[in-house]
Amino acid sequence: MNERGVQLPIVLMGVSGCGKSTIGVRLASELGMAFIEGDEFHSKAGRIKMASGRPLSDEDRMPWLDRLGETLALAPRSVVACSALRRTYRDRIRDWVPDAQFVYLKGDRRVVLKRTMSRSHDFMPVELLGSQYSVLEPPQPDEAAFTVAVGVGPDRVVRTILERLGHLGPGTIPQSPAVDS
């Protein structure tokens, strides 16, 4: 348990450009936890496929999710940035870390597109953003997850997440997601 009482592994999820890495680094620092960049766990073949403008299939993603889940199981006091777009992907991570707390960083498509267009990413071209939105399955009420809107600055998003985590209590998992903040 850290100084804020949070001991759950935290998975920041959402489409590319929603701020998972930016928020993740700041949140991990605030919580005194490690930060894990999920993109670093993609295979070389997966990176090449995405860089060529082709989205990953479920078959492509499962080994990536297993590598990430295993790492998170070994370092549970971590914040991880991982798209986790579909329920099956989140369930795969939960196979490794059943108590993972998911935070869905939800952004307006136009805002996220603008962010994505203004940055460079080694293997995630802006053209793949549409495919991410098409497979996105927001967390359901039976998942340990809550949603935070990202249309505000990163500091406000981090504060909102910290407030929401503070309501969970040490080692607890919410039973249903709350509405956008």
From TrEMBL:
One of its GO terms (cellular component) is cytoplasm. Pathway: Carbohydrate acid metabolism. Signal peptide: none annotated. It is an enzyme of class 2 (transferase). The keyword Transferase applies. Belongs to the gluconokinase GntK/GntV family. This is Gluconokinase. It comes from Pseudolysinimonas yzui. The lineage of its organism: Bacteria, Bacillati, Actinomycetota, Actinomycetes, Micrococcales.
